[in-house]
Amino acid sequence: MFLLEGTVGAGKTEFLREVTEYAQSVEVIPLNVVCSPEERDLPFGALSQLFDNPALPAELRGRVSPVMRALMRSARAESMHEAVERNRADIWYDLFLPVIELAATTPVVVCVDDIDHMDAASQQCLLYLVRRLSSVPLVMVFTELAGPSGAHRPFHAELLRQSSVTSVRLTPLSPESVRTLITLRLGVGAARELGDNFITYSGGNPLLLDALIHGERLGGDARHQDYGRALLNCLHRSEAHILRVARAMAVYGDDASPDDLAALIDADPGTVERALRTMTEAGLLWAGRFRHTLAARAVLDDVPPADREQLHHRSARLLYNKGATAAAARHLAEAGRVQEPWALRVLLEVSSEALLHGEVQRALRYLNSAQRSCTNDRDRWEIRARLAQAEWQLNPSASLRHLLALTEAVRNDQLGPYDTMLLVRQLLWMHRTQEAADILSLLRKRAARLPSAGIVPPAGPLNQPAELHAMEVWLACTYPPLAGRVQSGSAPTDPEGAPTTRGRTFWLQSIGVLSGGLVRRRGDETQEWASHVLGQLDLNHNTPWAEEATLLALMSLVYGGRLSEAANRCRSLDERHNGQLSPMWQGVLDAAEAEIRLRRGDLREAVKRGTSALEQVSVQGWGTAVGLPLGTLILAHTRMGELDEATELVTRSVPDEMFQSRYGLHYLYARGHYYLAMNRTRAALGDFLSCGELMGKWGLDLPGIVPWRTSAAEAWLLQGNRDQAKRLVKDQLTSPGPEDTVSRALALRLMAVFSSLGQRPRLLGEAADLLEADGCAYELARTLSDLGRAYHALGKRRRARVIVRRAWRVAHLCQAEPLCRELLPDASGDAGLAEDEGRTAVVASLTNSERRIASMAVMGYTNREIAEKLFITPSTVEQHLTRVYRKLAVKNRKSLPGYLRGEPG
Question: pTM to 2 decimals?
Answer without folding.
Answer: 0.73
